[in-house]
Fold these 3 entries.
Entry 1:
Amino acid sequence: MEQKRKMNETNLIQKEPKPNLVRNKPPHLDDIYACLQCGYCNSVCPIYRETGWESLTPRGKVFLLKHLIGKDSFFDKILGKKITDYLTGRGQISLNEAMTKIYTCTLCSRCETICHVDIDFHEYWEEIRKWMVENGIKPPPNTIDMYNYIANEEYKNPFMEPLPKRDEWYRDDYQLPETADIIYFIGCMTSYHEYQLLLNTLKVFSSSGLDFTTLGTDEMCCGAINTLSGQWDNFKNIAEYNVGQIEKRGATQVVTGCPGCYRAFKKYRKFAKCNFKLLHTTEVIAELIEGEKLKFTKEFKEKNLPIVYHDPCELGRVSDYEGKGIFEAPRYILKNIPGIDNILEFPNNRMDGICCGGGGGLKALNYDLTIDITLRRIDEAIELGANTIVSACPNCKAQIGNGVEMKKEQMIDSEEKFKMKVMDVLDIAAKSL
């Protein structure tokens, strides 16, 4: 968007008394003091690129935390600087403002790739948000609502969608068994907002002869939004519940197409015994292609070529820090689709890929900012000459899709024609069977 929007903090007024943050020390104190304040993270931060606000960079937030716990640096004391000199330029910073700054982040972890002291920023910010919530600093109101909807037995999802709606898209067409070797954990975004992707995934799985089933209405939100927003209170219950439902069905593998669910399940291992292998849908499809159990016969439509692949942060870079980044499986699938002879790459890809804008729960705090990030990614795709942006994440697909609609509105009076499709790898796979 041409004119940058200001952060709307007026509806997030903090009324509780200030907690004793000096006494309740934050986690990762060694990282807080290890930060060199070098500013290298500024060059890769999507938030800084859109806003230009130093206080929203990783080093700006670390600086904020030092002052929240009452610690001025050596140079601060020498120069007589205060936190307000750097962050607000006016009065004492409020806890609400501190919360807003800490949560203004997509948790994309790109800053980790350039940090000179190797701070694990994804885990770092998740833990800091948890610490803030535990000390009475409320997260964005929208995330509180989502937390409550997930805990509500009528919904079990963050969107306040009726529970029966979770499996209504496929209930009649796919008569799935009660037990199976593989559980396809669909996730809330795919179940309620990207249901065509859900149907396409079921089509591919069925065509390949996989022994799979779903949890149907017994599926509960994975709890990713809880951890992203610092609201960990019922995450253990969520983990135990979903693992219990999986065990009832005798599965040895859990497959999900949502990178957020994928990472949430990795966290389950701290709270529940997970006797199953965890895979992303692209890993499964790649294995089926290699084993010649799945072959594509229909060509991808030429009018939608060329395609460019967008790396989801939580599937690639963030997972890589846990020893398993998934970069090549989606590309391998696309290369095996008839008609796709070339896959364009963004200038920043794989470990250096740039967030679509929809991560970290930022949409619940500042949706307009997320769209600004998305529009820049779309502009890059246009410059490359792509006609289709492909990803392997329902959240990326939804976010980029919203950005495309916004771009169309911006260009409605332009002489230039703008057309761009947004697809998931599984969407293309299903159409090619």
Entry 2:
Amino acid sequence: MITGIRHIIFDLGGVLLNIDYNLTEQAFIQAGIHNFPQLYSQLAQTPVFDDFETGRISASEFIEALQDASSVPLSRQQIIDAWNAMLMDFPIRRLQILQQLRIHHDLVLLSNTNEIHEAAFNKILMDSFTIPNIGVFFDKVYLSHRVGMRKPNREIFQQILDDTGFDPAKTLFIDDSPQHIEGAKALGIQTIYLEKGMTIEKDIFLSK
């Protein structure tokens, strides 16, 4: 499936890190933000989430916005805990796959994320495997809140190609959101859409 591919761009959530958006939705509803499903979803985001994900607002401003949206008083920690509830675990086989691939491929991480989640998923790695951060598995890391751009906008994919010199025809992008796949395809990057129920260890990089 990866014949001729020299460079691989990985999404994070839903590809390497198990996530469940419903856990965060339930946590916020239980905390008092009863319209949270309308405020946030994987496919359509309100401006506050988009701004947070592209670094235009800080974690404090994001937390204050959710406090204002809540019908009950919520502490900073309550909001952080609810926001991080969606982040689950890194299956060890996926991390092993990254280590194996890096021997013969250039690896890049591209994630739409935010500073609260970055701290949280790195803590999961440290607590589970004493690995300090996700960057140890990659040659370059592009996090939306750090670079000020997000998928599926073609600018972020073009930035990666410009920075690395990758040939898009020899570059593979793996993501679990169809709109992100289309953004990469527009620049000639090879893609794999990880549909619901698929995993990289079961469906792409099979053990020999």
Entry 3:
Amino acid sequence: MELNNLVEFKSSPEIREKLSAYGIAKTFSEGDVILNENAYIKAIPIVVSGSIRVMRADEDGREILLYYIKAGESCIMSFLGGIHHDTSKVKAIAEEETEILFIPIDKVSSLIKEYPEWLDYIFRLYHKRFEELLEVVNAVAFKKMDERLLNFIKKKCELTQSHTLYITHEQLANELGTARVVISRLLKQMEDERLVKLGRNKITLV
């Protein structure tokens, strides 16, 4: 598999060759569950194309979006869980058709010893994910739901490179960890304020 087009992963040809040799390539359709909570981690994913959304659920099954993993990135949660032979604490779902290269955990450890740049890649991802998780905590703790909703729509549109977001009110509620009626009310309010235009299962930023 070609890794030369990955933006975030900047490395020598040698380590790219190793990753291609070690990795197992798989393609997932939109909505496919890539990793479930409490599942043992045997390999870490590197997203080659597409994107993944990472969710966390509470005991009642309510979910909240933590962050997205884009092309060239990996899941630091999977890396930490795999290295420590622990189970996954998050759920990973394909946001769109997504191609992933899975690197077995034992190979990940050997790459760290052999290539310092691989460790640097992991640390850079850790730093980025940590900042994104702080944003989630900040939003939940200090921001009103209408502000969180608008920021979420903008971020999702940026990810898909489109002004129109195809999503149901129920899906929005699940990803923001709230009730559907709350989302529907806030979206109608945003439409009245000419921030968005609503359609059947779609939202367009004005």
